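User: Teach me something about this protein's shape.
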Amino acid sequence: MMKPRSLSLLALPLLAALSGCGTGLIPPITRDFDAVTFTFPAPTVQNPVVFYSTTNQLGSLPAISSLISSVEIAGNATYTGFGNLAKIQVYIRQNLSGCTIQTDQSYVACPADESANLVQTIDLVKGQPAAFKLSGTILTKAVQNKLGYLGVQVTGGGALQGDKLLIDSGKVTVRF
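Assistant: First, the predicted structure itself:
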């Protein structure tokens, strides 16, 4: 007969392996996140450029992020300003190579051939919150690596320099 200690030592590697495979042994974790404001650094009208923040939004995640099997970010996006912004595409990159630093240094402009980094398209009505859900392999990999720069491309209407996009009421759900 096995000693109880031996049995628990055998179970540890099995539990560790199963928890990393998205088996549902660890329930999903949902947390609120603080509101984020994106200020458009330049006038944009259905621009073939994606503006990325130069801040790594995922750098402060805990080390456990490597065990995550999927991520979903849900919230509201509200456009305010003097333009007529109607649609944006949201992107995430793990590096900013090939991009041009903008005058204020907090944003870079990247060519619009970013389809591999596309996370979501969001339809907007000025002043009204638009619900969104961000998910996908590129987002999950960025979270696992704790390296992610969020970007926005205008694909409908236009925004003027200084117009704002508020992301709030947000929840992040991670699955292991």
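Now, about its shape. The mean pLDDT is 82. The chain has one domain: 25-175. If you'd like, I can walk through any region in more detail.
User: That's plenty for now, thanks!
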